[in-house]
Amino acid sequence: MECTIKWVDGMTFMAETGTGHLVTMDGAPEAGGRNLAPRPMELMLAGAGGCTAFDVVLILRRGRQEVSGCTVKLEAQRADSDPKVFTRIRFMYTVSGRNLKPEAVERAIHLSAEKYCSASIMLGKTAEITHEWEIVEA
């Protein structure tokens, strides 16, 4: 896996992933940015959310569950001083589908958190991570 980051101007940077996709990052105005794009730490949080959502949907599908939607909301707290790592992250899942078994949803989230989601497992080295979930009948 690779990624190249190029400074554009001010505090705006462009990341090009190894698969050729582009992501823009920008800083806050007080840091010289123009607030035109997400901050790098926001992208880390989004990456963890995407990683676990991908896992949960895949695990539920493989378990023959009729999943039709998965939303993960993340709330994070960071350390007050540098390095301002994440210290707490709360993952809140809303999984929708037909006749989803609660134990299957709980198992999928547990497997993602403990075995498959590299991003959240890595962030768990500095942050206390909690998981909450609800099922919405579709």
Automatic annotation (TrEMBL):
Superkingdom to which the source organism belongs: Bacteria
Stretch forming the signal peptide: none
Family annotation (Pfam families): OsmC (PF02566)
Family annotation (InterPro entries): KH_dom-like_a/b, OsmC/Ohr_fam, OsmC/Ohrsf
NCBIfam families attached to this UniProt entry: PRK10738.1
Protein's name according to its UniProt entry: OsmC family protein
Taxonomic path: Bacteria, Pseudomonadati, Pseudomonadota, Betaproteobacteria, Rhodocyclales
